[in-house]
Amino acid sequence: MEWFEDDQFWIRFAPIMFDADRWADTPYEVDALRHLSGIAPGGRVLDSCSGVGRHALEFARRGFQVTAVDRTRAYMEAAEDSAAAENLAIEFLLKDVRTFLRSDSFELALNLFTSFGFFAHEEEELQYISNIHTSLVPGGVFIIDVNGKELIARDFVESEEYTQDGYLVRAEYQIEKSFSQLFNRWCLTRDGETYQAEFSHRIYSGEELRNLLRQGGFSAVKLYGGFDGRAYDYQAQRLIAVAYK
């Protein structure tokens, strides 16, 4: 089993990853995603690695046709409950994104919140990108949002510790394999109980991510340093790649 297939990891860390501030940012992020992609109102959106459904729910509220794909059952069930409470029509699919493909079906595909780079082999990531390309209609757009390698180098710390929602969180980081991967050790403590997880994921520079998207079939790729469309430079906040079919 690969580390991201451990549902307990996602359940344990959900309160930290999806806190109130993260949910509050969602409408702004969806505004930005609409602007960056140019998707028309009512268009078809694929939220790949959709998690608890932050963006899928917000796009559906605005009248878009949304398909959400994720492999974590607890997250999908939570998202389904949220959609039902608001009477939102979202297609939820409990699937591995490496195998999901639906030809010529979406105007916009999303992979957000550093949900890329997890697979053991880069060939799997290239296949995933190729499947996304096939699933888009001609002229469709794929947006990936990650923490770029340049930003990791600029802001790197070996460890950090903070409290959040009653939890003590400690994270430790190491650069691995000639700066191609980032090792993480996360410790979560509350009420005398500690849960620890260790994992590594692949990290990409802007140019490396652009090249991979082109290998996956995309004709053009623009890079941005934030949802506000700023340049990907020394002041960047995120690495956001907008790829065009």
Residue stretches low in confidence (pLDDT < 50, at least 5 long) are none
**N- and C-termini, Cα separation:** 33 Å
Helical element count? 7
Rg from Cα? 18 Å
Structural class: alpha/beta
Which strand order does the major sheet show?
Answer: 3-2-1-4-5-11-10
**Mean pLDDT reading:** 96
**Mass-distribution shape:** globular
Task: Quickly list its features.
alpha/beta, 245 residues, 33% helix, seven-stranded mixed β-sheet
Describe the fold and architecture.
Helices cover 33% and strands 33% of the residues. The chain is α/β, with parallel strands linked by helices and 245 residues long. It has a seven-stranded mixed β-sheet, with helices on both faces. It has a four-stranded antiparallel β-sheet with strand order 6-7-8-9, with helices on one face.
Helix and strand arrangement:
Elements: H1 7-17, H2 20-37, E1 44-48, H3 54-61, E2 65-70, H4 73-85, E3 90-94, E4 106-111, H5 122-135, E5 136-146, H6 149-155, E6 159-164, E7 167-176, E8 181-190, E9 193-202, H7 206-215, E10 220-224, E11 239-244
Parallel strand pairs: 1-2, 1-4, 2-3, 4-5
Antiparallel strand pairs: 5-11, 6-7, 7-8, 8-9, 10-11
Helix pairs in contact: 2-3
